[in-house]
Amino acid sequence: MVRYGALKSLYDVDKTIGTGGFAKVKLGTHLLTGEKVAIKIMDKNMLGDDYPRVKMELEALKNISHHHICKLYQVIETPSNFFMIMEYCLGGELFDHIVEKSRLTESEARTFFRQIVSAVAYLHSKGYVHRDLKPENILLDKELNLKLIDFGLCAKPKGGMLSHLQTSCGSPTYAAPELIKGEKYLGSEVDVWSLGVLLFAILCGFLPFDCDSIEGLYKKILTGKYEEPPWLSKESRQVIKEMLQVDPRRRITVNKLLSHPWMTMGYYEPVSFKTLHQYRERNEEVLEVMASFHGTSIEDEWTRVSRWMYDYDTATYQLLLEKHRLELPLTMNTNFCNRFRQKRSYIPVLMQRGTPVQERRHSYSKLVTTINNNDCGSIEKLNVKNKENWSTPPKSRKRTHATGSEDLISPIPTKVTPGQKKVIISQLNNDLPSTPPPVVSSSSNKLLCSIEKKINQVRNVLTPRKRTPGIDKAEKLPTVLLDKNLCNVSTTSFTNPQDVISQLNTALQQKGIICKIKGFTLRGKIVERRGEGENCKLSFELEVCMVKLASRNELLVGIKRKRLKGDAWCYKQVCEQILKLTNTNS
Question: How far apart are CA 358 and CA 363, in angstroms?
């Protein structure tokens, strides 16, 4: 059931797949095409001084288009929330891939790193710098192609890429020395330093600069000295050294990195940063499908879509365009209109035969506009007193900032999670809303509904619903996964899934990790105390599932891992402990 009115009848919202300081990411379904999307939901009340940061992120995502950068489909703004509809990457974080294999081979690391550098070079060519490059901000799609995400700390220097920035921001372990010193810096140079740390982490499985205290970490970064493990090749050591130069003037540039010998080894050509797909290209087949569904001409459809308003039409077009590239059928969900008819009295005009094209088009436009306006307000307007203040969210004191004049962004030290909210575990299986009963259009309808409601209340009191202790009825059996395209899943030596969830809970609690279990899903949290308060250092999710091996027609018990928020390297240590404690086999 959709909790947010702004998404009602446009997207089905499923479980939470990520959380942050003031945002959460949920898995969603674009109803008109049936495609999966990621929905980033940001609470304006929690943004405070980060409000300009969101605006910059949206501006950047609307102006860039690259096959290794996660696509933005739609933006919905309400009085209390931002909703960013994004490309869904099934493969999870690159960091999870590193956890699975401890470290990557040089060949695999090169393949991934070429894609990362291609995306960063493209960003720089468009005048943007990312400033938060790390494995946690790189996702993998189902074909294991990398996608760069999280542009909340990006900046576009007003004078171009040769203009200096002054805001200290990003993740401390990936921060360049000039950021630590608080000096002015070039965005392209700090991105290159972060790329060096990232490549080291991919090849080694640990960070070049790491320390328990922030002061000790900064001292190591300023010296630029790190230990090189014996398995690193001479060529790998050289390219990392050229990126991790303390003096930014001696640091290799992105353009030179594109054709570096280590980068071209086995490829015999420089890395290209040109985009392979223009997401704003005109496609006649996609336009024909949309025009037929909406009852318009192809030219009228393109005139509306090509405005790129990042509304529902933009999302529909880009999702269909991706299906066309993958040579999948371009179909529209016919039940989409039926669901609208059940909720809006004027819907039948939309697909009525004999209705003039312009009238049908107008009805569709009115439909989407009404949904975006009415549904958004139906939930949020109860908490909003002054509409004049919608564009300016209330300030929050939950985060501190050291901002420069060119970009208002958060500083280097790690983010503090605002509030101490309880983490709600989403259900494993979310069914589509059931079809509502037919409407009785008579004056006796209210009376009948009232009588029926009273009867149901009496029935519920007399015959309370029986509850099964432990696992709910809907969650008696774990999710069954196929052995194809499994990501972040490890099989175990156990045969009973209930034993696995119990073993996990016991092992984690012995390590001092706070655990909550619902069904076959376990949420773990590590809390560190700072003075009188507490801070969530790490939050993760483990789901016990059944893995079906098609080759042997066999079911194995597996553990699916997901880092929700917090320190990624702490998560890596936890995962390694879990794999040992439960006798898992990768």
Answer: 9
